[in-house]
Amino acid sequence: MAERLLMDKAGAARLRMIIEAGVGLGGVDLLGFALEHAVTEADGLGGMVHVRGPGDRGLLLMATSGIVRTVAQDWEEIAVDDDTAPARAVAGGASVWMSALGGQSLSLPEVSMTPRRTGGGTEPAGEGGAGGGASSADDSAQRDGRGPDSPLGHHPHAAAPWSPLSALPAGSGLLAVPLLTPDGVVGALSVLTVGEGRPTPQQRSAVETLAAWAALRLREPSMDWGRADPRRPGKEPPVTRLREALEAIKVGSWEWDLATGEQLWDESTLAILGMAGQSTNQRFDTWSGLVHPDDLPWLLVEIEQAIRNQRVSGVEYRIRRPDGTTRWVSSRGRVLPGEGGRPGRMVGTVWDTTESRIARDSVSRALRHMSDAFFAVDGEWRITFLNMEAERLLGASQELLGQNLWDAFAEIGIDAVGLGLHASYRRAADRSTPVGFVVRWPTNRRQYQMRLIPVPDGLMVYATDVTEMRSREAESVAAERVTADRNARVTALAGALAEALTVQDVVNAAAERIMAPFGASGLVVHLIEADTLHVAGQVGYPETFFRDFEGMPVGDIAPLDEVHRTRTAAFIDSVEEYVERYPRMADRPAEARKASWAFLPLIVSGRSVGCCVVSFTESRRLGGEEKALLITLSGLMAQAIERARLFDAEHVRAQELQRGLLPSELPTLCAVSTAARYMPANEGIEVGGDWYDVIPLSGARVALVIGDVMGHGLSEAATMGRLRTAVHTLADLEFPPSELLTRLNQVVNDLGDDFYATCLYAVYDPVTCTCKFGSAGHPPPAVVYPDGTTEFLDHQPDPPLGTARPPFETTEVVLPQGSLLVLYTDGLIESATRDIDRGMLHLTKALSGAAAAAREDDAAGSSPGLERLCDNVLAELLPGTQLMDDAALLVARTFAIPADSIASWTLPDGPIAASEARHHVRDQLEGWELDELAMTAELLVSELVGNAVRYGKSPIALRLLRAEGLICEVSDGSLSTPRIRNAADTDEGGRGLQLVAALAHRWGARYTATGKCIWTEQPVT
């Protein structure tokens, strides 16, 4: 094993250099780079990369190297369960090698040093595993229903049975290595090897190293194979288009012996340099002869410096191909030390950048003629580009390219330090954050908006002439301050404050009608309770500015403390005045980006309840009329805030009551995964009566409930709580939907004549994948099937609870695994502007879109779950609207218990039944590897079967379920249910059910179509 893990030092060093040369590559470039070098390291004929397709697609061919088109098309799509090397590597998560003997026969795949997981742990790699390779292969073939000579698949382009291995050259082999990511196996990298012998451990280790490196670099979102076309549900983009995009990118590799000048080019390098078909052994003179004469001098200098300093070299230059065409190429190489640590060789990659270079040149031409001035500087402040407008601004010409920016400013008489240019430019460069400011340019006395954008290798500068715009802004601000307009806004503020319900409504109304007339840029309302600050709301400040204010003593904030104590407004005209008055808070103006303030006390009935702060970006001296008006407005705000605080407190208490009556969390079950949302009404403080619940039942079944008590108020909320409790109790008694609704209807009738409610009660059985439900005046449930089809289940609802006359009708449907069962209340689909029919149609579209997005997330490897689906549905149906009625949504994804987790037997009448039942339980639990539960389970089953034989009727049956726990069920034809008795000391019987209750985690009884069923549940650790 150690020998197989060990690679020669030269090979390990070469792999390190390949990986280092690939730093910075990603996605398509990364896959092509890794494949090319994997083929080289394995001395292969070619290679290919397969990835998992979207949806139910198999493995799709995404990249090839050295494989002719006629062979490649035979590998375009492989079933995941196919008997090919890539499919086996993906399925087993381990490397696989196959030999194409005679083009048809297969040898046993050899698992490499990657461990393969088995049922009991990991199986070490070896020469065919325990028991011999050939016999294992034959056994596998027999189990799959194939003989040694039978075909292994179906050709995608023909009707005859076919195996992809038949397209490989006779006597070759295929080494497939899985692409393992943290989210699982996403595909396989395969190399076509020479000869029938297995690859050497060194070759396999090299390929596995490159595949592992590439897989870990992959990012699933970047490997998104296209979103489904909404006009063609379920259709994916053509595979060939993706593959052609990958095949269009070629990356070559090269190696240069610095002592002899000999160079080794791979086929891709030859193709890029226009020498396809020629020898891979070349000379330095051949390469230098291809370099464009204008680029050769500086390129030689760059290479010489890279060799001398033994560093990575990355350059872009032009080549002149032998056919006379000129192309741009980029090359990246690293120097490898030789004897004595001196530079010995240089290895690297090369790729064609002509198209991207043309695109960059097009951008340069567009920048050259844009209306704004634009120039760029590098990290040493040298000018690297300037357009025509920048030349006019700087009074410069092309001769300034390469000169220092500060020297260029000095030549035209610009004082960069005095204008603040020097500080702003350096701040943008040092902090790597964009900077914007307005400056009056000394040479033409015009105002320019400067935007400084940091880039990795320097700084880009945009200068926009804003002289006319600034003049118009000044005129607009002056017009906004006209007295008539301001008075109209104040009148509107008084009306808005009278209608405001919450404190945030008051803040929003004040900000909307105070800030613009006064030219303010910020407004914040601080409430003070027990000398402690609370930020009620703010507009125009950074989100993080008030993070430290919440809960602070008012005495720590000097201006607020002064206004609160004196109950007198304070007006500060500038930052200098602020710092002089409050030196301990000198840093606050810069953090808030404000320059002047009006601190206004909020006084209600002679007591100060807080402070309103109106702030300005620039220094501002308010006139006497403006100050008086602000003080008057603060009085109106104080009265409105006091009313809003009472409303908020009452509303919060009502909402807490509502949410306290709903489930705090939904149970985790094997039958369904669930998510729910409740949206309260926005109007008024009265709570609603919408509710939902998820109730575990016996036999791994689950009850899904949703209901709506008609009306709003605390009484309706209390009724909702009673009904939810009643449903829990009735569900625990195992009543079917029809009988449960009948008894629940009686509960509502007993509450009085003015109480009505709707309810939908559904029971899902994961063993049969059936859902049985009944409805009392409630909208029908919606189902989103796994194929994306959405429909409402056909059911004629009975009248609401309180008016209905039993019996209630029930409907039973089959739900395939993975279906979404959606329950909702009328508040979700019905409103003042949308009737219930339109609402149900809207819900269908919203569910289809949300389910499609969930399937795309699943294909991309992410798992947002049902929580995101609920949010998407609510965002589609209730997009920030004012809800007149509360709404509830309950979504359940159904699952089926696997067949191998279910076992059932029919037992004979008579005493032997208990013995057979214990034997069945013992054998089945041993097969399920639940031996630790066997003793208790045998006792429970023995007691239940004994009771069925003695007191029940035939037929007697036993069923075991492996779900959240181990469920044992004994059924018979009798309708009499057992109950626990308090047996006397002298009684010979009556203690069996006491024993069952003591040993089982839960137990109970339910009626069936043919009799009854007694069940127990044991936890599985």
- Principal-axis shape equals flat
Residue runs with pLDDT of under 50 for 5 or more positions: 1-7, 102-162, 220-249
Q: How many strands in all?
A: 39
Head-to-tail CA distance between termini: 36 Å
Instruction: Give me the number of helical elements.
Output: 30
Q: What Rg, in angstroms, do the CA atoms define? A: 39 Å
Q: What average pLDDT do the residues reach?
A: 80
Helix content: 25-40%
Residues in β-strands, percent:
25-35%
Largest sheet, spatial ordering of strands: 3-2-1-8-7-4
Main sheet summary: 6 strands, antiparallel
Helix vs. strand class: alpha+beta
Commentary on this structure:
36% of the residues lie in helices and 25% in strands. The chain is an alpha+beta fold. The strands form eight sheets. Strands 3-2-1-8-7-4 form a six-stranded antiparallel sheet, sandwiched between helices. A hairpin with a 6-residue loop joins strand 1 and strand 2 (59-65). The longest helix has 37 residues, at 624-660. The radius of gyration is 39 Å and the shape is flat. The protein starts with a helix and ends with a strand. Residues 1-7, 102-162 and 220-249 have low confidence and may be disordered.
List the defining traits of the structure above.
30 helices, six-stranded antiparallel sheet, disordered N terminus, 1021 residues, alpha+beta, single chain, 39 strands
